[in-house]
Amino acid sequence: MSSQEIPEEENLPSAQEPGHGGAVERADDPFADPGLPAHQPRIQDIDERAAKRSERVVAFLFLLSMLATVAFIASFVAFPVDKIVYIWPLGHISILNFSLGVTLGVALFCIGAGAVHWARTLMSDVEMTDERHPIAATPEVKAKVLADFAAGASESGFGRRKLIRNTMFGALAFVPLSGVVLLRDLGPLPEKKLRSTLWAKGKQLINMNTLEPLRPEDVVVGSLTFAMPEGLEEDSEEFQVEIAKAALMIVRIQPDDIKDKRELDWSHQGIVAFSKICTHVGCPISLYEQQTHHVLCPCHQSTFDLSDGARVLFGPAGHALPQLRIGVNGEGNLEALGDFEEPVGPAFWERG
Predict the structure, then answer these.
(1) Which residues contact 30 (CB under 8 A, 6 or more apart)?
(2) Does 5 have pLDDT greater than 70?
């Protein structure tokens, strides 16, 4: 007979045969609530001396946290940022970073460890169950919650164990001091660095293209030359910092074309020296129009008139370019007769 053929009725069983062993016996309910195990009191619950020992341990951890915070602040003050030491197995690392990390870690760990030890040894560990109920609590439930909270607060000993409470408050009050100290490390204060440059009386003007001292005959009418102070080396570490303040534009104008009297007095035979740094946002100025004696900042198109005290003709710059008073030394080279009389570059605090 093929598998597609339907079997005849006489070949089917008249009724289902009972299973082996007769009726199946029902096992115990596997999902029955086993309930909570019997409560076992801790040593601290029955022995007051053990409770006192736990209290001292918790207080010691909180005190250790406070000492670690003090050590954090002391490390920040005592260790320089560039001090490198060898610590096995970490290798060569900054002693400042190492000490700050260790002390702050100890301070935070001790607060956490103290809180955990307090909860595990001194606070109530009686297991409590509460059946699910509607979100809106009945007045009876609210009263029970308040009573349970009061009982928990009383059993925790928060009010009775003043040593723990006070040391915990002290530890929590000291930890934020670490963040306050870190605010001091946002960077060194500029002090008076923005108010002065490397220019000083007697410093020769060095041509930035030839690196040779500039002589009056090197500057012809209509030309634009860039200069830096004598002694500033391009491969020095501070070059970019110093040239950002001391860069000069040297132009030569017919003395009769100079409109500003002070500019004429501070020039040498029509040779004038102005700061190359724009007074708007500090871009270097390099576009000079010899017919009009105007210079243009390429960043925001501020335009200055070098024949009229470098006053602003157009653009967002708020101040004229500072002028450097120059002269000629005994060797016939151009030299500065002092520093700028006002800060160069963008105005800050209205130039103090």
Answers:
(1) none
(2) no
